[in-house]
Amino acid sequence: MSNSDMRALVEALLEGDQARCVSEAARLRKAGAGVAQIVVDGIGKAMEQLDGKCTIDQFNLLEIMLVGRAVMGVIKELFPKGEPGMPIRGTVIVCSLEGDVHDMGKNILKMVLSGKGYRVIDCGKDCPLDRLLETAEGQQADAVCVSGLITSVIPQVRLLRELAVERGLGQMRILAGGAALKQATAEGLKVDFVADTAFDGARYLEEVVNEEP
Ligand code: B12
Question: How far apart are CA 137 and CA 208, in angstroms?
Answer without folding.
Answer: 19
